Amino acid sequence: MPAAVGILRAVDDNAAKAVSAGHEWGHASPHRVRIVDATLTCLARYGTVKTTVDDIARQAGLSRATIYRAFPGGREEILGAVVDTEAARLFSALGVRLGAASGLEEALVAGIVEASTRIRDHPALNYLVAHEPETILGHLAFEDSDRLMKAASRFAAPFLARWLRPAEAGRVAEWGTRIVLSFALSPSPRTDLCDPEQTARLVHTFVIPGVRALHRAATPQTTVLAPASLSPHHEEVAGVGPRPATEGAIP
Amino acid sequence: MDDIRERILAATYACVARWGLSKTTVEDAAREANVSRATVYRTFPGGRDELLDATVAWATSEFFLRLYEQVQEATSLEEVLELGIRFARRSILEHEVLQRVMQTEPEKLLPALTVESVRVRDVMADFLIPYLESRGVLPGVDLHEAADFLARMALSYIAAPGRWDLEDPEQVAELVEAELLAGVVGPPGDPR
Asked: What predicted TM-score, i.e. pTM, was given to this entire model?
């Protein structure tokens, strides 16, 4: 597996690509995706150390020559493409859910559930965590997760900025990423973040009040801010007062 | 903790401090602890792997004992969390052995630390319960679930501050108010 730097650079790059609409990683060989998916199958079975180009070729139903034509850099290049592809797929799926949400709370819940589910159900990831923890775990904790959170937050912030100011959107996006990572690294018997209802409960109980608090901290001049009316940025600039509160319903 | 066990762990830690994780052997630990190899293997039947895991666990406990001493003076829930996060973060950055091993052998250390952080979280949550009880949680909030959430979040910032500057007391206060306590006890000064 590429070093931490490689993984996180890929995540960074893909976050950036996914944000700009119509990103494409168009490549020369028509076999690239097939080879990547075949590699994922192998990784889920044997991990990174034992997966060879022969295994990949067999799984893909292609010759070694074809594999090397698509990936002249061989195994390392293939593994890099695997990380690229999976990161792009994750951000793509997240983008769909976040874009479809009609409110902040819905967006947070959908995003957290989507990310958590994809992490939990990822066969290659599961194999690596179980059998090669040094490959993955090292890079999901401590300093490296700073980069992960930055990438995730840069990606999600524009979506959340529909309901929050840009700075708040960034903070809340990072916070959501923290929550996903914490529960992914060590699940709670009480709260399953792959379950929309349980996630909604967590978001409503712990996150939404915090969003209001972050908003208060960012707007000291607004003395009375109705809890639910996190009004769009332009309303405050125009000096219009907050909308009347609809209890618990952040639009 | 058993005297011999403690002695071996402290000795192993000293070896790791000197030579790193990969180069520390059972022989090194035995010599440093002034016990026989047999004693080490008796105490840690899983051998070197078990010894090193236990050493990480021991060093982590020591770290949090130190942290506990720092936050003992705190009287409010906010203070406990703010002091705890700030001291923990600074201690990590100033922890020579941890920093060195992180730079040189992260792939050996981080899986063990990840395992440890789950155990630490439970200890932290238990520690916070009395503070939560005396402060009172918002209606509908489960005490233990809240404690678990607080511990998860606190550990998350300590491990990776993200966009927060944990040297800045104002930022830490804001972080604690919003991303930890807002849904648990409500805004400060809330009548209950």
From this structure: 0.82
